Structures are given as C-alpha cells and as structure tokens.
Amino acid sequence: MTIQNLIRRLEEYWASQGCVILPAHDLPIGAATFHPETFLRAIGPEPWRCAFAQPCRRPTDGRYGENPNRLQRYYQFQVALKPSPDDIQDLYLQSLGELGIALDKNDVRFVEDDWESPTLGAWGLGWEVQLNGMEISQFTYFQQAGGLECRPTLGELTYGIERIAMFLQETDSVFDLVWHGEGAGAITYGQLFHQNEVEQSTYNFEQADTEKLSRQFDEIEGECDRLIDQNLPLPAYEQLVWCSHLFNLLDARHAISVTERQKYILRIRGRAQKIAEAYYASREALNFPLGAE
Amino acid sequence: MTEARAVLFELGTEELPPRSLEALKASLATAVVAELENVGLPFDQAVTAYASSRRLALRIPGVAEQTAGTTEIRKGPSVEAAFDSEGEPTRALLGFAKGCQADPEQMQRWKAGEDRLKTDKGEWLKFDEVVEPRDCRELLPEVFNRALAGLPLEKRMRWGTEETSFLRPVRWVALLYGGEPIAGEIMNTPCGAITRGHRFLGEKSVELEDAGAYENALKEKGHVLVETTARRQQVLSQIEEFESEFKVEAVRSEPLLEKVCASAEFPIVVAGRFDEEFLNLPEEVIRAVLEDQQQYFSTRGTNGVLSRHFFAVANLPDVNGDIRVGCERVVRSRLQDAAFYLERDRLRPFDSRVEDLGRVVFHRKLGTLLERVQRIESLAEYVARKVDADVKTVRRAAHLCKADLGTDIVQSFPKLQGLMGAHYARIEEEEDAVCQAVSDHYRPRYADDALPETLPGQVLALADRLDMLAGVFSIGEIPTGTRDPLGVRRAAYGVLRLVVECGLDLDLKDCLVQAVNEYPESFRDDGIPQAVLDYLADRMYGYGTERGQSRDAIEAVLAVGSARPLDAFGRVRAVEGFRNLPQAKVLVATHKRIRNILRETDVNDAEINSELLTEPAERELADRLVAVREEVQENCAAGTYGEALSSLAALAEPVSAFFDEVLVMAEDQKIRHNRLRLLRGLQDLFLGIADFSRLQD
Q: Which residue of A has its CA nearest to B202?
C-alpha cells in the first residue's frame, strides 16, 4: 500500500467514525498534538472528533538522510476523539485491520507509556502501540492541557505513518517507501524528501544562526504576550507554536544549557497556560458552540 | 440459610502497567478481605487473586449468603439526665432518640420505665437496635467499590465522561456468587457473568457459568492464562526449548521475566537473532537495547560470551514468522542507532569532553558538573592518601569520571553511565586501573548492588558521594519524606557500605571537613561536617539492623563516636559478642551504676592515690584495673574489640565485690574523691568501646 493510499484509507475510516477530516496545520510543529485542533479542542466541555495527516519537525532527529529510520521531518496521522469512546481501543485496532495488518498473525501490544508535554502543560496516560516490537502509534487519554483538567477526556491516537508503511511495504529503509504509484511509475519517499533531509539537517545542525534564533524567540514571545493581553487566544497560540519550534532549533544546535533549557520550557508553558485559560473563556462566552458533554 | 458459595470478581480493564501488577493484585486481595470483615460477611480466608494485562480478579471461597442479623444494645443517658423535674424528656434524651431513630412508642416505653439498663452504678436508658441480616448480593458490589476506591495507585486517570478514576479505563465487570450472576454496578460499570477472552485469540466474550470454573473457562474458551504461574511456566519452558535448540543460555532477569509475564495474556517466546557485526558493540549496549528498550532476553553461548540470539515474548503464536522478522528489524535499527552514537562519540578525544561539563548544571545552587568534578578530584586525592591508594590513578579517574555524561550513547542509555566512560577511556589507552575506577565509581547504585572492586574505584566512589552530601547539607536541601531527587539517602547508605565493607578505616569527620572546604567560601559552615555525620549515624541503624545487629548495641557504640564507621561496626560486633558472656549483665549494670554516681560529681580525672585506698576490695579493684587497662587499650588500638571486652569481663568479680563492700560516698572527701576517680578510670575503659549503660536487658 502506497503512503498516499494509507493516508486516504485512514481518512476514510475515521471519517466514517464521525471525524472531521482536516488539513495539516500550516506552521512547523513538533507533534500533531500542537495542532490547535488537538490542543485547544482538548480544553472545555465541547465534544470533538477530527483526523488529519501532519508533517512534524524534530530538528535533533535529523541524520542528513543517512539513517534508514530517522528523519528530522516525518508524518503523523492524528485522531482526536472527545469524549474518548468506550470502544476506542477496538476502533483503533479495526483501523489497523483496514490497513491490512493481520491482527491474529502479528503481535500488536499496548505498552505502558505515560505522555507529558512540559511546554504545553499537558499530560496523559496511555500506551505506545507496538507492532512486532516496533512502535507504530501513541495512544493517550488527555488528563490535562494547558494546565486545565480535561473534562471530558480527549482520546488521542497518533499513527507513525512511515513506520506503518515500512511494515506494510516490507522495506528496511524509510527512503525506499513508495509514496505514489507502482513499478516504473513509483515515486519513493527518498525521491521526494531525501534532499530535504540532507539540506535541513545541514541547516539544523550547522547553519542555523543561534543568536538570530534566540532574538526571534524573544520577539515572538513578546508578540504572544501582547496578543494574550488583547484577549486573542488563537493568534497568540500561533506565536507560541513558533516559539516552540525556535526552541527546538536552538536545542538541536546544543545552544541551550540544561538550566536555560528549563527556563525556556517554563517560558513556553506559562504562556500555554494563559492561552488555554483565555481560549476556555472565549468558548464559554460563545456558549460552547459545539455543545457540552 | 443456604450453604456458603465462592464469589468470583473480575475487573476488566484496558492494558494495565506491568510494573506494579503483582503488587496491585495483592493489595486488591488485602483490601477486599478487610472490607468483607468490615461488613461482617463470613467468608473463607483462602482467597485466590489473579492478574493479567487486561484484568484483576479474585475468587473468595465460602462466602455466606447473609450477614448474621444482630441486636445491638445502645446505651443512652442516665435516667436522671433523661427526664426533667416534670418527667418530660430532656434534650439529652431527645438527641439520643433521634440518633436511634426511635419511634413514639419507644418514647412511651422509656417514660413507662421500660428498656432500662441497670447496673450497681445506676440506671440508664437503652435502645435495642436490630441490625437486619444483609444479603451478600447487595453487599458485594459495595465491598468491591470501596476496596477499589482505596487502592494505593501510583497514578489515576479518567476516561470518556467518567468521573471515576483508575489505573487504566475499566471496561467490564464479572461478578458471580457460585453459579449466579450478581447485579449491581462496580466503578460505574454494570456487573454481569460475561468476561472477555484474549484480544486476538479465542472467543471475544466468554460466559462464566460458575465462580469455580473461572481459570478454565478463560483458558479453554478465552485463550487467556489468567494465573501468573501458568504464564511464567509457559515462558520458561519455551525459553528452555530454544536454549537447547540454539545452545545458548538466556540471561535470566527476574524483573524482566515478571514484566513480560504481566504484559501478555498468552505468552509465546519468539527466538530471533541479529547480525554478527553488532557483536562488536560493547556487551552492555547490546543488553541495554535488548533487555531495557525491547524487553527481550539476551543470551550467552556456552563460552559465556553474549550471542546473536535473543528471545522476545509475544502475546500470541508467531504463525508465519512475521513476528520474528519484525522483532529482528527493530533490534537491528536500534543497534544501528547505538553504533551511530558510539561512532559519533569517538569523533573527538574523550578527555576533551571534561571541559564541556562546565556547560552542564549539576544543581542550581551547587554549580556545574565541571566544578563538581574538580572538587571530587581534590577530595579523592585526600582520601587516596589516607588509605594508601595510588594517587595518580585516583586523580586521573576522578578527572574523567563524569566525562561520558555528554556522550550520545549515555544520553540515549543513561543507565550505562560510567561503563561507557570506561569504554571510551580504554579505547584511548588510559590505564586499566583508571578505566576500572571510572566504570565502578557509581557503585553501589542501589542498596544491595556490588561495590567497586578496586581501591581507586572505592576511593572515587566515596569522594563522589561525600562531595554530594557536603553540598546538599550546605544548601540545606536535606531530603524529607519520600522526596529525594538527588538520591541523598542512597548516597549516605553507599558511604557506609563503602567504608565498612571495603574496609576503609577513615575518619569521615576529617573527610567531610575536607569536602566542605572544596566548596566556595560562601558554602562553608563549621556545622556541616557534623550534620552530615549525624545523618550518616542515623543511617547506621538501618544498615546495622538489616545485618542482624541490635539497635541498642548500635546506639551504645555510636554514643561514644561515629566518625569512623568501620571501627564503629567492629565495636558493635564486639558488643554483640560480649552480651553473650556470663559477666555481661554485671558489667552493664555496673556501668549504669557508675554513670549515675559520676553524674552527680565533679571528679573529672582518673588519677588514683594508692595510699588512700583503704579497703581490700578497692585495692583489689584498683590492682586489677591497672592490669587490665593496658590489655584493653592495646586491643582497642588494634581494633580487636572482642578481646578488649573479654579482658574487661575479668573485672566483673572485683567490681561486684567493690560495690558490696565499699561505700563510695565516704565521709572523708579525699577518700571519696579517690574512689570516684577509681570508678572514672573504669568508666573510661568502657567508653573506649561503647556506652554500655545504653544496652537493654
């Protein structure tokens, strides 16, 4: 199954489960959790179901395209279900079946994994899902987001698209994955993104100007504060997402010592909390348009 | 009443964390037993508890159908207090009546002088409270709900719109009384007679016909081995088969075995292997990948060397080999990662990493890791000189001991700290003794971990911990309760083990003074060494009692000095031996008596004037004391406290005679003081070893 078909199959499946299928977020983010349709929707009483494929950036994981399993940009397929339904595990397993994974011949396991995002002030309990020992998904019951209790609980399913595709296509290198077509007309992951991995790794590890990045961080942080004061949680959140990405870039350049690291995290988290509160208040003022569970 | 039957309770959940599963099972059983006793429902104590990744269950045999109904007599106010002068009920009585929910007829009976409790001290009103028998069908859901609510869980979570919380979401509950399903709700989930089978094998839902048939129904229809022992047996026997097939031996780790048995409901061992080339990686790295990251068993060949084979435990049979292939692929990619880190770490000289530590904060108030390393270097040298360790080796090892913390391999496998430092140091041809000390200096990492094998390793391990203790006490962040992020308790315990078990006869007071002096001026406080020493002394009780020594013997020894733990424990051993001597009782009593006498006086020396010795018994004691003193002091100096105490025991007889025949508090001040000096001489001899007056009988 090509990657584009894999994504389409997941979209169809989750659409049939009542999910709104959305485009990816148009800002660089480290995980689909940062997509406002996950993070902000986890806040407050409104029910919500959505699914989307999201490119994610983790500058530190870059390997100049030389490692068959590691990328500085990769794809997640994200599903958010709020409140988390009673049969959420079965729904997830069924989706694997839809992709052609034989559940009675492979070892699919829910392996304890408590999730925490220190920058978002969010945590949850759940598992990483392993397929024959390989992590293919994260499965989390959100307990808190932006420091606010999640009531009802949002269930987050995050598929690692490349991992699942590597299993289905039986390849040992991510760059050999077929994204589109077959035979002579096949377009591979490598053809699409290898150059990007090389160049972006070079940028992340060698070229990124740390002084400029940290100045940008300060500036955007100020903008975020201003927007929070203006009671504009959605634009403020975009600034926060930028800050988070800049922080990841600085981290990849080893430009941040351990103590500074903690300070940066606290700077982002403090704002995530304010935004969460402002967002909740704004939805409440609108009388929770999507309803209240 | 019908005969007692077994109750079967099963809480069906999503996958539970395997770490605490066995402990959780045990605490559930304890909690339920307590609740059953609490409600007075008779049952048989032979409870069986079950746990697997998706369920917790209990079978309680011999549960009575009902509680025994009883009448409980409640005592009310006295007759005088119950009625006022007009014979009307007082507030006290009205309150009592309300509390008993007494009806008007009851009030009439009280007024009429009925329902009284007569004793020879007076007369009170009473109320016969009838406690109706309660049916187990009604009680059991309450019992389980309360037991579950009170379980000590590490972390609780909510799910969906539920307000209940548990370790993971609860999805079904089975509750049977013999063959009869019990209705009700437990954790907001309706009870039934249906359990669920294995996720991917057997029947999805299995109807339980009888509480007694639980394990079998799950096994036959549900493909679930609900008994831990059954899963364990299955894993072990399959491991053994593969061991003989591949002529290897699995590295059997009990925590790993427990973990894999707690995470599969029908465990199947899958044997995989990795490429030969990876055997060039350090063994610890391969084992960390297999055992820690993947929860697979690593194996050794007949020659004891790590082999390419590994054993994974799946949750179902590997019918066409896909599981094996998948496991091998993951292991390969993880080993590739590790090889990549090892290669990248070597791009620069290992010792050049020491200066990087200047950018890593050890503790907000205690500075960088580089500063810590510099302190350890100097302190380790000090300790090395005291115990005749090779100073050059110790200094070099101290310099390198934290350099691996910045390497990629240790960042990915924190557990390998020290080991990887030694690995890189060896590659760069540092001396063996240096590498060994770098590798060993984190030992003991936990209470019963092995100690460093070589003297330089022991010295470095000690300096590492003393530096930390001195720092933590300087900034007043002494651990309280269970919060101990820096592992201060563990460090203190490590210090004791290093000093006592490696035979390092050190005066820790001196070492701690040195440790504090390594810190900048602003940290130094004269009280710190003693504060750390007191903290260590407190730990000596735990350390000693765990090794079979008694508290009072430790207390007696510590009372006369604790700065040299090796010496202190030598004295404790001697005191324990001494207690068994027939003369011990007399001498302990004597010491108590002497202490009490001397406490009242201001005689501070032990210079006896032999001309003032008038009575034969005191002369005898003085002579014997002189004879014994030298022996005792020599033995004390040599650390042979057992022999010192046998010599002291010889004084039992003359001491008894002295107290029988001589009046210490003589009229004549000179004679009195002379006798007190004699006693002080005796006490000094005792106090060289322990304060025997603190021994309990």
A: A104
